[in-house]
Specification:
Layout (H helix, E strand, L loop, with lengths): L5 E6 L10 E8 L4 E4 L4 E6 L5 H5 L6 E4 L5 E10 L3 E8 L3 H12 L4 E8 L4 E3 L5 E5 L2 E10 L9 E5 L7 H14 L1
Parallel strand pairs: 4-10, 5-11
Antiparallel strand pairs: 1-8, 2-7, 2-12, 3-4, 5-6, 6-7, 8-11, 9-10
C-alpha cells in the first residue's frame, strides 16, 4: 500500500509493432484469485465483474502511467473499458526520455507487468469451500494510476500488445482546432 492506495500487479507478455508507444492490456482480471499483501499481512482477493463501474463513469483517459509506482510519469490512459475478462486499458507512452525508457524496459522484458493503484470500496470477505477467506472486490472507488512493473500479483492478466499511435491528431485536439477556426471567423 502506498499513501492509502492498494496496489495490484499483472504479468505481461508483449507484442511490439509500429512506433511502440501504445500499450494495450488487461489490468484487473475478473474472478481470478490472487494472494496479495497491502502491508498488514497476506490475504486472498478477487475482482468481481462490474467493480470498476464507478471509475469508468468519469474521465479515465487522464489517468497517468508510471514506470514502477514511485517512478517517472511516462504516459497516460487513452481508453479504459470493462470486458467479460476484466478491466482493459489502452495507454500511450510519452515521446520523452522517460517514455522511451519505459518502452525499452517493456521490449527488454524488465517490466513485464502492469500494476493498478486504486482506492477500494466496501468488499466482504467470504469463506470458500476450500477453507480460505477471500476478499471479493465488488466496488472500487477510484483508480489512481497504472504502473509498468516487475512483480505481478495476477499472473493470468497480461499486456496484449504495444502498438503504434493512430494517425492524425487526438479527437479533443481536432475539436479545439475546429472550435478555434469557427471563433476566428
Amino acid at each position: 500500500m502506498i499513501d492509502g492506495l492498494y496496489i495490484r500487479s499483472i504479468e505481461a507478455p508483449l507484442e511490439i509493432t509500429g512506433d511502440g508507444r501504445t500499450v494495450i492490456g488487461l489490468l484487473a482480471p475478473y474472478s481470478e484469485r490472487a494472494r496479495v499483501d497491502d502491508g498488514f499481512g497476506p490475504y486472498w482477493e478477487t475482482y468481481e465483474p462490474g467493480c470498476f463501474d464507478r471509475c469508468l463513469r468519469g474521465s479515465p483517459s487522464y489517468l497517468r502511467v508510471q514506470l514502477e509506482h514511485n517512478g517517472h510519469w511516462v504516459g497516460r490512459g487513452n481508453a479504459w473499458r470493462d470486458s467479460p475478462e476484466g478491466l482493459r486499458a489502452e495507454m500511450r507512452l510519452d515521446n520523452t526520455e522517460a517514455g522511451k525508457e519505459a518502452a525499452f524496459k517493456i521490449r527488454d522484458g524488465q517490466t513485464p507487468g502492469l500494476s493498478l493503484a486504486f482506492l477500494p470500496g466496501l468488499s466482504p470477505t467470504i469463506r470458500h469451500r476450500d477453507g480460505t477467506d477471500v476478499v471479493h472486490r465488488r466496488k472500487i472507488k477510484a483508480i489512481h494510476h497504472v504502473a509498468l512493473c516487475q512483480q505481478p500479483a495476477y499472473a493470468n492478466a497480461q499486456v496484449e500488445m504495444v502498438r503504434e499511435a493512430p494517425m492524425g491528431p487526438p479527437a479533443r485536439l481536432a475539436y479545439w482546432q475546429d472550435w478555434t477556426a469557427r471563433v476566428k471567423r
